[in-house]
Amino acid sequence: MKEKSTPVFLERRSYRQRRLTDAARLLPVLGALLWLVPLLWPRSQPAATPDVAAVSTSSAILYMFGVWTFLALMALFLSVMLDANAEAQDVGDD
User: Which CB contacts under 8 angstroms, 24+ apart, belong to 13-21?
Assistant: First the structure.
């Protein structure tokens, strides 16, 4: 006899919490990739490629600060969302 298989169902709240946790785990990887981007920018070379403009150091520093600010804000957003979901789950368990 074949048993009736029940479809896999995840609660919406636990599914969202898992996706937020996954995003929080991937945030450092995203940050490392974004911080490696300046290594791909062209450097100043005397006569090799005169049509390619080099990126100034100040632009690179502003980019790094912008990435750092973005990562900090994303971490704040994810932590607030995870905390709100945990509180909602605690209230739902009572």
Answer: 13/85, 13/88, 13/89, 13/92, 14/89, 16/85, 17/82, 17/85, 17/86, 17/89, 20/78, 20/81, 20/82, 20/85, 21/82
